[in-house]
From TrEMBL:
PROSITE patterns: HTH_OST, ZF_BBOX. It comes from Stentor coeruleus. Gene3D superfamilies: Cytoplasmic polyadenylation element-binding protein, ZZ domain, LOTUS domain-like. Residues 3-49 form the B box-type domain. The lineage of its organism: Eukaryota, Sar, Alveolata, Ciliophora, Postciliodesmatophora. Transmembrane segments: none annotated. GO terms for molecular function: zinc ion binding. Residues 530-602 form the HTH OST-type domain. This is B box-type domain-containing protein. Pfam families: OHA, OST-HTH, zf-B_box. Keywords: Metal-binding, Zinc, Zinc-finger. CDD domains: Bbox1.
Amino acid sequence: MLGKNSNCEECSSEKRDFFCQDCEQYLCQNCNDQLHRGGKRKDHLRISTDRKYQENIKSFEKNSNEDLSSGNINTKFTRESYEILNQNSLRLFWDLQNTSLNLNQFKETVELISIRYPWITKKYIYGKDLKHLEDIFIQYNIEYRSKPYLSDQATMINDICQDFENYDKNLIITHRPYLIKQNLPDSLKTHKTSSLNFITDLENLIEISLDDVQYSSNIKWTKPTSDRDLYKLTHKKAVASENSSELSMISYLKNLAYKGKIIHEINDLTNKLGSWMKISKINALELINTGCKLGKLLNQVKKIGNVEINVISLKIEKLDLECLLWVLRSLKNDEMISTEKAIQSRLKEAFDLKPAGNVWTNFIDYALKYCRVHHQKSLSETRGFSFFSQNDEKKTRNFSFCSKKIQDLVSGGETYIIYPNNEEWISYDQYIKSGDVFKIKQTRDWELFLKFFDKYFDTEHPEDQAISGGRYGCAQYLKTFAETPLKNSTLGKLSYMIQLAIDEDLLRYHKTLLVWVPVFDKKCREDKFQLFSAKKLIVQALAQCPEGISLAQLPIVIKEKLPANFDLSKLGFAKLKDFILEIPDIELTSKGKNHPFVRLVEIDPPSLESLCGFISKKIEEREIPVLLNQIDNEILEKFGFNFKWSLYKARNLNEFLKNSEEFFVTEDDEVRNVKLLEKYCSYNSTTDSDTISSYYYSDCQSEEFDCKLSSDTFEEIAEMQTKYIQQLLDDDEYQ
């Protein structure tokens, strides 16, 4: 335990007197008093480092190692010999902290102990604020042990370590055996000649070995009393932080939080906590519920898709640097960008904490301005002058933060990201609008991603399967319900994949929910037709009011024209005002305060080049053929419902396309791009209409001709055509 340097690790000048197990630091008397004078540090476990104690520890370890290495030790002989030689047979350590007994109960218990263990040579009692009862303890030959610079638990463990091997048995009476067991040196736990047992039942004085110490919420060893002359041996009420099992649980969750794991599904946490504490799942769940009732843990119900899930997190009352570090590590684990907005969202999601605007601004300024550690002296630049010892685990408590300016690819502006010093990471959502820069579509994960949604939406009513929560909610759904290895992907990566699917029109927003387009297209087309018809009818209705009308009167005007079953909310619009903004012919203005007004406006017609470019774009966007009426509707929705074809020397779209040299309309009213077809169907510049027509109707040819060509021949032709098309496209770009 002790290093070569015998000086205090805090001031580096005085001789070390204590080792704090919580701080993992050797301290002198002065530094110990200053650092542990108040707050949570007051209860840190500190062990004396005097020479006698060191020799005892070394002796324990030596004896333990010798016993373990010797396979032929006669245990019985060793024990009997030890009992004969050892005059000090039993020591008793009584932990009265957070326990209430009246005076009569205390006397009865002491007498019961004396009868049961008449050979006790030493009896010690521990607890805060018991100095005034010292005379009573002396009457029963009990020594009250208390040190102002140590907690009662630390004082007791110090005493247990002193002369441990000189006693055959050591008994500890306590209601918190699990906590004490955790803080005992390993050399005591494995000692072969001296035993250490616990008593938690004062009525029966049943001993429990170290190996059998486990958490149990049913341990009750104080006798309830309603006496008015109740003589309380302690004045502090027991709280969760002082209960061994609950303290261990909080410590476990904090260790996970430093690793960025701040949100836990309740069943998963129950299993992991039970395994870590070596208790049953029932006790682990009861322990979690107790923590929630006492306000140490936060229990929230999150809706992922259509499923409600209980999640557990630590209860945070106010924002501090420790909490900020947890959140940043959480975003790092998820490979998500750590902007201020993202940090605030994660705070709300995990801890239900939403700081006010000015509080947040001041806190971030404070976090970025100072390189923080736990106490003021640690700001010294002296090497090795730190509150924490320099080991890997303590380095995880990095309370120094910095910011970096980056380009926001979504808004086009600049933004700042915050991260702990030397812990920068690449976030997927930083490139959410940059296309497939990570080549995700070439991976196995993308195939599994597509298969998941194909299977998930393959139902008679796919609209019922729509996923709520937007891109992030959909990513959470995949993380929760997808199969391995897809569910092992980070939330940032899944969110990035979802945006790729949205860009590819594989996923689409419908009524603020995400739906899978391949199985939802039919319903989407029906909804789109309803919206188009409604827009057209509203424009026709407003044409009867040249001066315009109030938005409040518009529903009355259009009521007779729209179908009776028309429902804007089912088509993704919460208000009529939102729907009006989608119609280019209508201008929404304000006449006075809170008095919106609508009227028709004239839209400048597009140039011939812009119109042809728009039609070409719509054809290229779709893999399936585009019908004439679909293009017509798209043009009206884009350039206004009062669009006039006469400006382009045509009576309608069909005539315009026939007059154009860029497009061709088939007998099935499908619109094709002539330029693209010329490049695809011909290897020279003399392509005639017969060749093009032959291509248009090639799908009507008999299957006999197709069967004459082998699969190898098709692959060769396809490869040759692809190369030729690319060459033509390159020539066009060059020209």
